[in-house]
């Protein structure tokens, strides 16, 4: 996978992604192509807990909450 973010900026980018996922109730808003990229990126950055929680969700976001 290509590294799009410089190493010095990765902690801030991962923190922002993790915060966004948390604000959405651990529901992803990335679609299939984005999910394929974001889940490994979060895992590689040590935020695998979000990945597990998102993958284990049994609910989906309602259209009015998107």
UniProtKB/TrEMBL annotation:
One of its GO terms (biological process) is carbohydrate metabolic process. The lineage of its organism: Bacteria, Bacillati, Actinomycetota, Actinomycetes, Pseudonocardiales. Pfam families: Bac_rhamnosid6H (PF17389). This is Alpha-L-rhamnosidase six-hairpin glycosidase domain-containing protein. Gene3D superfamilies: 1.50.10.10. InterPro entries: 6hp_glycosidase-like_sf, Bac_rhamnosid6H. Residues 4-62 form the Alpha-L-rhamnosidase six-hairpin glycosidase domain.
């Amino acid at each position: 996978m290509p590294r799009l973010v410089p190493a010095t900026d990765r902690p801030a980018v991962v923190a922002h992604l993790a915060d966004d996922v948390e604000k959405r109730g651990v529901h992803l808003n990335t679609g299939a192509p984005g999910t394929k990229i974001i889940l490994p990126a979060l895992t590689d950055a040590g935020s695998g807990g979000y990945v597990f929680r998102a993958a284990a969700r049994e609910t989906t976001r309602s259209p009015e909450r998107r």
